[in-house]
Amino acid sequence: MTSSESALKRVVVTGMGALTPIGNTLAEYWDGLLSGRNGIGPITHFDASRHDSRIAGEVKGFDPHEYMDRKEAKRMDRFAQFAIAASKQALTDANFIINDLNAEQVGVLIGTGIGGIKVMEDQQEIYLSRGPERCSPFMVPMMIANMAAGLTAIHTGAKGPNNCTVTACAAGSNAIGDAFRLVQRGYAQAMICGGTEAAITPLSFAGFAAARALSTRNDDPAHACRPFDRDRDGFVMGEGAGILLLEELEHALSRGAKIYAEVVGYGMTCDAYHITSPVPGGIGAARAIQLALKDGGIAPEQVSYINAHGTSTPANDSTETNAIKTALGAAAYQCTVSSTKSMTGHLLGGSGGIEAVATVMAVAHDKVPPTINLVNPDPACDLDYIPNQSRDQVVNVALSNSFGFGGHNVTLAFKKYTV
Fold first, then answer.
1. Same CATH fold, 266-415 and 12-254?
2. Per CATH, which fold does 12-254 belong to?
3. Is 169 assigned a catalytic role?
4. Is 251 a catalytic residue?
5. CATH says 266-415 is which class?
């Protein structure tokens, strides 16, 4: 080990928060995952009658005023509201108080794929119907993607490193990985990190539908998202946020924090192939998995569970299966794999956040969530995807995969904390 490697800090997860289509707290989300709860239904956020796809995984019963006052909530987009709420949940879960003594050592890094698209659509309508002078002076700060991180810092008092990753569906995982690096290298004692998204809007749906990416199983929303199943026909959009509090180990121990898991690996690559399609065979994704394993000093046979990107699109699921087999070799058939998107839908830039939460909970509780709606397995998808029922299983090492338009590939590696 080199001197620089020996100086790296150990990083642990001490708090988490989640707002999802199957639960608005960490406990509700985890219970929903283990019970195979479906969070997908007809769209209520807008009149979707003219759209080819009319189903989504909406967050239900969210009241932003539980986390901020009405004036503040009115001046931010839903994606930022989600981020603040989940971040406050994570801090409470960790019993972590930000004050004048530690504020400069606590940072925020929250990814999003699209940002405030609802605000942009609403303000465009105002511009066209009522003129430019009627547009809101808050339009730009409500719309821009970095505001989830910026507003979370304002609402929590975190004055350390602050950034926003915008790498499509890999954004939440990139945010966690980059936050891991900052704590590991001593640039912060703790980082609030993850992903958020609120893109269930008319224009967003029109764009994804035009790309033929969305499921059109409108008459059967409960079974529309079916990763690794031969009858899958596209992804189902979801919304929400997943936030982790990463903390330097010695700092966590000094305050008696509970530790869910240790973050040990981060792999990041690019396909450099196509704007939306993965490279055939999943070579880029396989390299991300291999880099995360190398970073964490993990042998393929040590991997217990993988939370797959698992979008339920024809291209992704078989390609990801190939990537896992390329990266792990024969060990791919010894670990379990599941796609929690089968229950939540695809949160785009927020997916890496809630899926990292699910992965950490699997490590902490030795339980793995299922892939629901897996009835007719695709012969090209031949791993153990934990069909339809959660499973009790020792999880010493777990990976979380996220892949995004533009060829972005990210894998995070977590393991049980040991002294």
1. yes
2. Peroxisomal Thiolase; Chain A, domain 1 (3.40.47)
3. yes
4. no
5. alpha beta
